[in-house]
Design a protein that fits this description.
Length: about 300
């Protein structure tokens, strides 16, 4: 797609292949063209940025022999380098490592360096590294999803960190919302105003999903979570591991300085946050004396 003209009765579209540019006229154009959407940019649609922009190293590997490896999605909440491990189908493995501020990007081009990161799970003698690339994770949402006969969906309309695996699901919800409306429109059983309901129905849910993925990311990224949610905002409780005793002590001291009304407000906010069961259990069992001031 190289160009389009958004007209009253449809969209004039120009697409280019290796030989020529072809002109197509369509009643509608739906831009499902990803985070850097050409369609969104041509419509001059701005993005609302949630300020969660991080670089992560994404590695895909494949087992060459059976090993004792847990078949699960694991989020490693390591303050030194948060990471994610996912055991996929047919021996496929996905690893994601946070790129830390002190890292050199040249290191991530070095196979030995990458294999060292992977060493807690796999080694060269039992797996093959298929690819390793640094991706930027964003959290943002488009301020408008429709301009007359042109719409956007999926990553073109919203982007979120992958911690909930919700990005593709949100895009599927977009097109599921649109498909039957477009069908009725093309059958002359509905007017173009039915397309106005698309963003109205999808926007708030997509925005909520983005917020949830950020919250999960802050649990995984321990340092960021503590700094933002307790020491600054004092609104959320994450978890306290042995490595984070000092941080939790700071939280405890901060809470103790507040009056009873603010303590109650902190408790109410905490109660509303539905953290995973293992997080609550970890707090209540391993750090009961520290957790008590928040609980």
């Amino acid at each position: 797609l190289t160009k389009f003209n958004n007209k009253d009765k449809g969209v004039e579209i120009y697409v280019k292949n290796s030989r020529e540019t072809i002109n197509i006229f369509s009643k509608l154009l739906v831009g499902c063209d990803g985070a850097s959407s050409f369609v969104r940019k041509q419509l001059n649609i701005e993005l609302e940025d949630f300020g969660y922009n991080q670089s992560w190293l994404v590695c895909d590997a494949h087992l060459t022999q059976e090993i004792s490896l847990q078949n699960a999605l694991i989020q490693v909440c390591d303050p030194k380098r948060p990471c994610t491990f996912l055991h996929g189908r047919r021996g496929h493995l996905r690893f994601e490592f946070r790129v830390m501020p002190e890292d050199s990007m040249e290191d991530f081009k070095n196979d030995d360096y990458i294999w060292n990161l992977l060493s807690p799970w796999i080694k060269r003698d039992n797996a093959v590294l298929e690819r390793a690339a640094v991706y930027k994770f964003h959290a943002c949402i488009a301020e408008n999803w429709r301009d007359k006969n042109v719409l956007i969906a999926g990553d073109a309309a919203h982007q979120m960190p992958p911690f909930m695996g919700a990005g593709m699901g949100a895009g599927i919800r977009d097109v599921a919302n649109l498909a039957w409306k477009i069908h009725l429109l093309f059958q002359s059983k509905a007017s173009h105003t039915i397309l106005n309901t698309y963003m109205h129905e999808r926007f708030n849910h997509a925005k909520w999903t983005i917020a949830q993925t950020i919250s999960i990311g802050e649990i995984i990224d321990v340092k960021r979570g503590f700094a933002r949610n307790f020491l600054i905002a004092n609104k959320k409780a994450l978890y306290a591991s042995k490595e984070n005793i000092k941080e939790v002590e700071k939280i405890k001291n901060e809470l103790n300085k507040k009056d009873l009304e603010k303590k109650k407000a902190a408790k109410d906010i905490f109660d509303k946050i539905k953290l995973k069961e293992y997080v609550i259990k970890k707090l209540s069992t391993e750090n009961k004396e520290l957790y008590g001031s928040v609980k």
